[in-house]
Design a protein that fits this description.
- The chain is mostly beta strands.
- It is built from one helix and 57 strands.
- It folds into four domains: 216 residues, Beta-galactosidase, Chain A, domain 5, CATH 2.70.98; 112 residues, Immunoglobulin-like (Sandwich), CATH 2.60.40; 109 residues, Sandwich (Immunoglobulin-like); 144 residues, Immunoglobulin-like (Sandwich).
- A hairpin with an 8-residue loop joins strand 18 and strand 19.
- 38% of the residues are buried.
C-alpha cells in the first residue's frame, strides 16, 4: 500500500540564491529543491529513490489563493511514487537510485555518475546503464497558457557511448495530484477522462488540463505535450497509479476502468508518457522533453460557471497554423439547467476551423461539468493581440460570458551572412597557412524565437574540418532581433588546388532554412625534389655533414628511383640511411641499399616504394652522411631522379640542386 504522511525531521536548511527569482535549497527532508514564486521542484537525494522528483505549488496563480503550497506531483516527505523507465534493447531500467518501495521495484538499475546537483538554474542528475548515459534535467519554463514560469520542464538526454547501436525507449510516469484531490478528471480536447484511456500521437492535443472545481479551483494542472521545443510522445496513458507502479514498461491497462488504485479502493490517478524504442547510433545523443505545471484558465463564476483556456501566445510560423480554444461549463446551481448552448465570438483576425460557432450541450445536472473545443486559425502571419469571447446561455438560469486574450506573434526569420577568406596563397612552394577560420553570422530578424537552430558547413572533397572542430553546431534557441557568430576551422586535404566551393547552412524547427555558398581558392604548388643540408653552422675540413634528399608536393607518389653525383676529392660518403618517407608507424617500407662508387663520385640506386600511393607535401627520401675531405666545390647533383605513380607512369618533378662550396678552416660554407 502507498501511505501518505508527514515526516518531521530537524535539519539545517541550506539556501543559495540563484539568478532571477529561482532559489535552491535543501529542505527538512533532505530533498534538493529549486523554487520560484510559482512552483517548486524537489528531488530525492536519499539512499533509496535518488533522482526521483515531485512538484509543489509555492505562490501559484497570482490571482488565486487556494493553490498555495499544494502538490502537483505527489512527493512528500521525499519523492518515490513517480519514476522514469529507460528501455534498452528490450530490458527495462529505472532512472536513479534503487528503491525499497512499490514503484519501480521490478526494474533494473544503473550506476550513478552525478547525484542531484544545481547547475545553471537546473537540477541535473546523471546515471549510466552499460554504455548508455542518461541525464535528467529539471528546470522552469513559461506555460503556454499562463505565460508565466510556473511550469517544470522535464528533460532526459540519452547518449550512446558504445560502439554499436542500441534500441532506446523512454517512459515517464507522473503521480499527479491536485492539492488533496487524487482523482480529478484529466481534460483533453473536448473530453473529461475519468477512467483508463490511451491517446496515440495522432490523437493528442497540444496540452491537457486538470482541476478539481471550476467554480472555485484549488489547483489547475497542465501537461504540455506538443510545441516547438518539446518531444511529442508516441502514446499517453491515463490510468491508476498502482498499475503504473507495478508495471515498469507494460502494465495492467483496462480501458473504461475507474482510476482505482490497483489492489486497493482509493481513487489515485496517474499518467505515463511513452516514446517507443528506436535505434540510437554510436556517439549519438537524443533528448526527450515534456512540460508539466500550472494551467491558465480564465474563469467567471456563476450559476453556470464558465472557464476558457487557449495558448496565451501562438507563433505563426506557417500559414495553416491552428490552435484550440477550450471552454469548461459547470452547473453550480441546485437544479438541472435546461438547453445549454455555448457560442464563440471571434475577432476579425481569427477564423473558425470547427464545424459550428454555436454548440449545444443539452441539459446539465447539478455540479455537472461539460467541455467543448473549437479549432481556430489566425488569418495573417503578423504580430497582433486578439480578444475572443465565449458566451453560455440556458433556458432556466442566467447567461454568462468570458473573454480571453490571445497574442499572435509573427514568425522567426533567420538570416545568414558569411565572412571567409577567399584564397590560401603559396610562399616558398608551401601554403602560407595550414588552415583558415570561416565565420557564419546567424541573425533572427523575426518577431519570435527560433527553436532548434542548427548550423553546419558542407565541404567538398579536398577540404576538411580541422581536428577538434565539428561540421555541425547546435545553437538551440535564437531570440528575436539577436544574432550569433559561429566559427569553423577548415583545411585543405593533401595537395588539392584550385577553386573549392562549399556552403554554410542553418536550419530550425520553426523557421525557414538558409544556405549561403562561397569558394576557397588554393594556389598550386610545384612538385620538386632537391637537397637539404642539415648543418647550418660553419663547415670545415674534417667535419661530418648530412645531405638529405627532400621531396615536396608530389601527388600520387608510389616509387622513387634515383642516383646522385658528388666530388670525391671534397666529400667521402660514410653511410646512407632511409628517409622518413619509407617508414610508416615504425614499420619499414620497401627500400634497397644504394651502391656507392667512390672512385667516380656516384651513389646509385637510391630506391624505395610505398605500400600505397600517397600525396606527399614534404618528406625525406634518404639521408647521406659525408666526411669533408678537402676544400672545394662539392658538385652535388642529380644524375637520375625518377618518381612513379601506382600505374608505373613517370611523375614530372622539378629538380632543385644546391651548390656547396667548402672553404678552408676559417671560411664559411657557401650554400646557394
Amino acid at each position: 500500500m502507498r501511505y501518505k504522511f508527514k515526516l518531521v525531521m530537524i535539519t539545517m536548511l541550506v539556501t543559495i540564491t540563484l539568478s532571477g527569482l529561482a532559489i535552491a535549497k535543501v529542505d527538512e527532508h533532505g530533498n534538493l529543491v529549486l523554487e520560484n514564486n510559482y512552483i517548486s521542484i524537489f528531488v530525492n537525494q536519499g539512499q533509496f529513490n535518488q533522482g526521483r522528483f515531485a512538484l509543489d505549488v509555492t505562490g501559484g496563480a497570482p490571482l488565486r489563493d487556494g493553490d498555495d503550497g499544494k502538490p502537483l506531483i505527489y512527493g512528500r516527505p521525499a519523492p518515490w511514487t513517480s519514476y522514469t523507465t529507460i528501455r534498452i534493447d528490450g530490458t527495462n531500467y529505472i532512472f536513479g537510485g534503487k528503491t525499497n518501495k512499490r514503484a519501480g521495484l521490478k526494474g533494473k538499475y544503473g550506476q550513478v555518475i552525478t547525484p542531484p546537483q544545481i547547475k545553471n538554474n537546473q537540477i541535473v542528475t546523471k546515471y549510466k546503464y552499460g554504455k548508455i548515459v542518461v541525464t535528467q534535467i529539471l528546470s522552469f519554463v513559461k506555460s503556454n497558457t499562463t505565460g508565466l514560469p510556473d511550469t517544470a520542464r522535464i528533460k532526459y538526454r540519452i547518449t550512446n557511448q558504445g560502439k554499436k547501436a542500441h534500441q532506446i525507449g523512454l517512459r515517464v510516469m507522473l503521480d499527479t495530484m491536485l492539492g488533496k484531490n487524487d482523482g480529478a478528471p484529466f481534460r483533453i480536447k473536448n473530453q473529461a477522462v475519468t477512467s483508463d484511456k490511451l491517446y496515440t500521437k495522432d490523437e493528442l492535443a497540444s496540452f491537457w488540463q486538470a482541476f478539481d472545481s471550476l467554480n472555485n479551483p484549488q489547483v489547475t494542472a497542465q501537461g504540455t505535450i506538443q510545441g516547438p521545443t518539446l518531444t511529442t510522445p508516441d502514446r499517453i496513458y491515463f490510468t491508476d497509479w498502482g498499475s503504473l507502479a507495478d508495471g515498469v514498461w507494460n502494465f495492467d491497462f483496462n480501458p473504461g476502468q475507474k482510476f482505482l488504485r490497483k489492489g486497493e479502493f482509493e481513487l489515485d490517478s496517474a499518467l505515463a508518457l511513452f516514446w517507443q524504442p528506436k535505434a540510437l547510433q554510436p556517439g549519438e545523443t537524443r533528448e526527450y522533453i515534456t512540460d508539466y505545471g500550472l494551467g491558465g484558465i480564465t474563469i467567471v463564476p456563476g450559476l453556470l460557471s464558465l472557464g476558457v483556456t487557449s495558448p496565451a501566445k501562438v507563433i505563426m510560423n506557417k500559414p495553416d497554423k491552428s490552435l484550440q480554444i477550450i471552454a469548461y461549463i459547470q452547473n453550480t446551481a441546485e437544479i438541472e439547467v435546461k438547453d445549454v448552448k455555448v457560442k464563440l465570438d471571434l475577432p476579425a483576425g481569427l477564423e473558425l476551423l470547427s464545424t459550428s460557432q454555436i454548440k449545444s450541450l443539452g441539459d446539465l445536472n447539478p455540479q455537472e461539468t461539460a467541455q467543448i473545443m473549437w479549432k481556430v486559425r489566425p488569418k495573417e502571419l503578423k504580430t497582433q493581440n486578439l480578444d475572443y469571447t465565449v458566451k453560455v446561455t440556458a433556458d432556466n438560469t442566467d447567461d454568462n460570458q468570458v473573454s480571453r486574450s490571445l497574442k499572435v506573434v509573427g514568425p522567426p526569420k533567420l538570416n545568414l551572412e558569411l565572412k571567409t577568406a577567399k584564397k590560401i596563397k603559396v610562399k616558398n612552394n608551401h601554403l602560407q597557412q595550414d588552415s583558415i577560420t570561416i565565420y557564419g553570422t546567424i541573425s533572427n530578424s523575426g518577431d519570435s524565437t527560433a527553436y532548434g537552430v542548427n548550423a553546419y558547413v558542407a565541404l567538398p572533397p579536398g577540404l576538411t574540418i580541422s581536428a577538434g572542430d565539428r561540421a555541425e553546431k547546435y545553437i538551440g534557441s535564437l531570440a528575436p532581433h539577436s544574432s550569433i557568430k559561429i566559427p569553423w576551422t577548415i583545411e585543405p586535404v593533401g595537395l588539392i588546388k584550385g577553386d573549392l566551393p562549399y556552403f554554410i547552412g542553418v536550419d530550425s524547427t520553426n523557421a525557414a532554412n538558409q544556405i549561403q555558398s562561397t569558394k576557397l581558392t588554393v594556389q598550386k604548388r610545384q612538385p620538386t625534389v632537391g637537397f637539404k643540408i642539415k648543418e647550418e653552422t660553419k663547415i670545415t675540413v674534417g667535419d661530418y655533414i648530412t645531405v638529405q634528399i627532400k621531396v615536396d608536393n608530389i601527388a600520387n607518389l608510389y616509387r622513387i628511383n634515383s642516383s646522385i653525383g658528388y666530388n670525391p676529392q671534397v666529400l667521402e660518403p660514410i653511410y646512407i640511411s632511409r628517409g622518413s618517407l619509407f617508414v610508416d608507424n615504425n614499420n619499414l617500407l620497401s627500400w634497397s641499399t644504394p651502391q656507392i662508387k667512390r672512385d667516380i663520385g656516384v651513389i646509385k640506386e637510391i630506391n624505395g616504394a610505398l605500400d600505397t600511393p600517397q600525396d606527399i607535401k614534404e618528406d625525406i627520401v634518404a639521408s647521406i652522411h659525408f666526411k669533408v675531405k678537402s676544400a672545394g666545390d662539392s658538385n652535388l647533383r642529380f644524375i637520375k631522379y625518377n618518381a612513379y605513380n601506382d600505374s608505373k607512369e613517370l611523375i614530372s618533378v622539378k629538380l632543385q640542386e644546391k651548390e656547396l662550396d667548402i672553404g678552408g678552416d676559417q671560411d664559411e660554407p657557401k650554400i646557394n
